Amino acid sequence: MSEKTFPPASTPGQARVPDQSGTTARAALPGPLPWAGIAFGLGGYFLWGISPIYFKAVGAEGVALLDLTAHRILWSCLLCLGLLLAFGKRAEWLGVLRNPRLRRALAGSAVFLLINWLVFVWAIDRNQVIACSLGYYINPLFAVVLGRLVLKEQVSVVQWGAFALAGAGVLVLIGNADSAIYLSLIIALTWGFYGLIRKRFAVDSLIGLTVETMVLLPFALAYMAWLAWQGQGALGMANSWTHILLLCAGPVTAAPLVLFAAGWRRLRMATMSLLQYLSPSLQFLIAVLLWNEPFTTVHAIAFACIWGALLIYSWNSWQIARRSA
Fold first, then answer.
1. Is 9:243 a contact under the CB 8 Å cutoff?
2. C-alpha to C-alpha distance for 20 and 3, rounded to whole angstroms
3. How far is CA 325 from the centre of its chain?
4. Is pLDDT of 18 > 50?
């Protein structure tokens, strides 16, 4: 697997690059502003933010939760394999498959990914989009803790203040939540550990997702075969529109994940965690404007805290970047 340099994982002016074991080591960076990582991160979070629209459309066609998840795995895997071959990454992909350490890491991240998918779609199907968004509001705070404790990333006093303000907004939401709070917590924890694994092990974003879906593919195919044997399932049974929607599960699933992993490897966990607020904010707006879920004064207070934190953190990061330029 060829060595690549990425923007900082711990301190400005340093990055982590893969060593022979598949983990990461420090290397010098050519510049202080990882704009590519920011663009990847924002792109992935934007697509996730609007993804409930797609899952609502599939659910409206009567596709069961597990059936939809199996289709997500199948079509994502096939799409990723096709892109991998088209981009000439076959040798690098085979190198990852031959590395036991990377195989184990990606098998672990695949488990967290699967749980996150199931809970996310289950919540959307039961009109709990705000619970989903709350989970993704909590996750950045959890990710910053993981980044500090596991990756030893440095966080300034001003940035800690920004996270404290965001945490206050999250606490306001939790204080107003109902029994669906457990959905939010599962989403936050599974996504946090998934991001940590993908951060620690330097694998190309497309190759990583390809291997993760390959790990899950046998289970998805077995379940789809069982449904077909029972005369159930959408494949071959549903109408043409439903089949088109299911085929779209590949790009809908793979595109934001590839963008997320690309940004996650190029930016500090703290920076990606703040960018992540774009996704739940879009989910909140979709839930309120399209599906008439209530937006209360409590939500307005929480939004003010969270976006205030985003502005503070962004301003402080820009100041640090200017001083290191």
1. no
2. 10
3. 30
4. no
Question: pLDDT tens across 194-220, in order?
Answer: 988 988 887 888 899 999 999 999 999
169/246 Cα distance (integer angstroms): 37
**pLDDT computed for residue 324 by the predictor:** 67
- CA dihedral for 91, 92, 94, 100, sign (positive or negative): positive
Q: Are 324 and 12 in contact (CB under 8 A)?
A: yes
Contact between 71 and 246 (Cβ < 8 Å): yes
Phi, then psi, of 25 in degrees rounded to 5: -135, 165
CA 238 to chain centre: 30
For residue 81, what pLDDT is reported? 94
| Token digits of residue 214 | 């390959």
Q: Are 205 and 261 in contact (CB under 8 A)?
A: yes
Contact 123, 222 (CB under 8 A): no
Would you give the DSSP letter of residue 9?
A: S
Q: If 0-12 CB within 10 Å is exposed, 13-18 middle and 19+ buried, where does residue 174 land? A: middle
Question: CB neighbours of 147 closer than 8 A, spacing ≥ 6?
Answer: 153, 155, 199, 268, 269, 270, 273
| Cβ 171 vs Cβ 222: under 8 Å | no
